[in-house]
Design a protein that fits this description.
31% strand, 14 strands, seven-stranded mixed beta sheet, alpha+beta
Length: 261
């Protein structure tokens, strides 16, 4: 592959065509979520705020996980005031799944044969390999939605074990995409899907179920000091993962998954 060109964005177009009211753009940043969280306490902060980086050097995932970022990937965080959309704090776990759904719907449009699924609670997969990660964090009454998407990067030369576990739009299609187009379509879908969440659209639950990658698989989930083993029955209306154990149907609100089958 030839070297990637310098990453540029049409920020005026992003603001004109999406819900974004303000943009903080960085050539390089350790983590867009960290930068966004630092901005949240500002009294004059205008939301929705997009924190966008051409390069992220220390991207964060859930817990101690890290996001490997290469040239051609899309890394950004969106700061929203949940009260503007009438999204309550109790809805924030469901907001993660709703974000995943928005990513699936947006990326579908760039693929000839869409095969995007969600791995509860915060990953999007294409052809059984991770293409996007999501991290939601809250502070000062604001909700930060962090998103990393593998767009024009390639995992052929990525550190192990990423070549066998992750993918990108480029690796799947063999062609490059406009980062502006991908970013704008995701932000538009995110706006639409969060509004569905805010108005308690019950069909969101059906959409989550249809995209759930883990349904029918035997899982072990660590939840604090407990471990629950069972067959995944999908996702319930509150966004919990449902495990059918030998004795009961157990909703899992948060935890770390080990797939057994």
């Amino acid at each position: 592959m030839s070297p990637d060109p310098v990453v540029t964005f049409d920020l005026e177009r992003v603001v004109a065509e999406t819900l974004v009211q303000q943009v903080q753009y960085h050539e390089a940043v350790d983590s867009t979520n960290t930068t966004a969280l630092d901005a949240c306490p500002e009294e004059t902060l205008v939301t929705p705020l997009l924190v966008l980086a051409a390069k992220q050097t220390a991207g964060r995932g859930r817990g101690s996980h890290h996001w490997w970022s290469a040239t051609g990937s899309l890394t950004f965080s969106l700061v929203i005031n949940p009260s503007d959309l009438e999204i309550e704090p109790r809805d924030w776990p469901r907001a993660s799944l709703t974000t995943g759904l928005a990513l699936c719907l947006a990326l579908d449009e760039f693929l000839e044969s869409p095969a995007l699924t969600m791995k509860w609670p915060n990953d999007v997969f294409l052809d059984q390999r991770k293409i996007s990660g999501i991290l939601l964090e809250g502070t000062a009454g604001k909700l930060v939605i962090g998103i990393g998407i593998n767009v024009n990067c390639s995992f052929q030369d990525a550190p192990a074990p990423l070549p066998s576990t992750a993918t990108s739009l480029f690796d799947v299609t063999g062609r490059k995409f406009s980062l502006d187009d991908v970013l704008i379509r995701i932000l538009q879908q995110l706006d639409q899907q969060l509004r569905r969440l805010a108005c308690n659209d019950t069909t969101l639950f059906t959409d989550w179920q249809q995209r759930c990658q883990l349904t029918g698989r035997t899982l072990e989930v660590s939840t604090g000091n407990q471990q629950v083993t069972g067959v995944c029955q999908g996702i319930d209306q509150q966004g919990a993962l449902l495990l059918k154990t030998e004795t009961d149907l157990v909703p899992i609100v948060s935890g770390t998954i080990t797939e057994l089958e």
